[in-house]
Amino acid sequence: MALPILNNASLHELTVPSTGKKYNYRPYLVKEEKILLQAKESKDDKLMMRSLTKLIESCVEDINTNELTTFDVEYIFLQLRGKSSGEIVKVGYECSHCEAANDIEVDLTNIKMTNDIKDNNTIIKLTPDIDIELSYIKYNKMVNDTNYKKKTENTIEVFKTIKNSIVSVNTQDERMIFADESTKDQDTFLDSLSSAQFQEITEFITEGPTVVYEDDITCTSCKEVFKIELRGMSSFF
Questions:
Q1: Is the pLDDT of residue 150 over 80?
Q2: In terms of domains, do 126 and 79 share one?
Q3: CA angle (16 as vertex; 14, 22 as ends), nearest 5
Q4: What is the pTM of this model?
Q5: Is residue 136 scored above 80 in pLDDT?
Q6: Residue 44 lies in a domain
Q7: Is residue 93 situated within a structural domain?
Q8: For an engineered disulfide with 133, which of 58, 167, 196, 222 has Cβ 3.0 to 4.6 Å away?
Q9: Can you give the residue range of the structural domain that contains 133?
Q10: Rounded distance, CA 158 to CA 151, Å?
């Protein structure tokens, strides 16, 4: 006699933040969670990212992961995490008053997106005759970038992120697809920006949406109330 197959799970519905499209999804199972945990244990960022993509493709019906932004993936994973392993996550957080460690229970149903999601694609006017079209970076673009680094603190990585966000440079007569231009021409264009123009482009990226949890917590040690703010998917994993 064959062993029974467990957990023919009921479907739930989620809304992708960047597009507003609705999809049905099921909780992930042990076979999928095992792959995710192995990827995390490997400390390989690229392996972890690929595993997340496969997890979403397995659990969300008819979704095209090539269309998902980085914050879409964060949000979808936390929806899956809540329905699969429980909506309460325990995280450690240091008291801002006495620095004592506190174990905090985070309710994933209270996760929100920071900032308004701008329309794809966003136009920034550089001069009366020239503007650029920006788009939130697609998650799979980072997955497929062989030189991807998780942290973008140095100048080279910041410029790379900006390049990946520029869709086109537009004049009154022409729309030039940025990715079709040579690396030299891309660099020359960015180098020609004023500090104010560059700052406006950078803000589109650095102030982009992400998942966030905020709450007021009473420290178990000093009893002072302090505010916590958890940002990004890794804070809840």
A1: no
A2: no
A3: 50
A4: 0.80
A5: yes
A6: yes
A7: no
A8: 167
A9: 122-206
A10: 9
Q: What is the chain's mean pLDDT, rounded?
A: 86
pLDDT computed for residue 96 by the predictor: 87
Task: Give the up-direction half-sphere exposure of residue 56: CA atoms within 13 A in the CB hemisphere.
Answer: 27
pLDDT, position 68: 94
So what's the pLDDT on residue 61? Answer: 95
**Cα separation values, 42 from 45, 48, 106, 166, 170, Å:** 8, 8, 26, 33, 43
Residues 130 and 194 in one domain: yes
Residue 192, token pair as written in the block: 């020609």
36 contacts 49 by C-beta, under 8 angstroms: no
Residue 117 lies in a domain: no
Give tens-digit pLDDT for 65-86: 999 999 999 999 999 988 888 8
Give the pLDDT mean for 216-226: 92
CB 176, CB 168: distance < 8 Å: yes
CA distance 105 to 142: 31
CB atoms within 10 A of CB 141: 14
Q: Is the pLDDT of residue 120 over 70?
A: no
Interior angle at CA 135, CA 73 and CA 122, nearest 5:
130
CB 214 within 8 A of CB 229: yes
Name the nearest CA neighbour of 138 among 18, 7, 55: 18
Residue 135 and residue 183 share a domain: yes
CA 160 to chain centre: 17
Asked whether the beta carbons of 131 and 142 are under 8 A apart, the reply is no
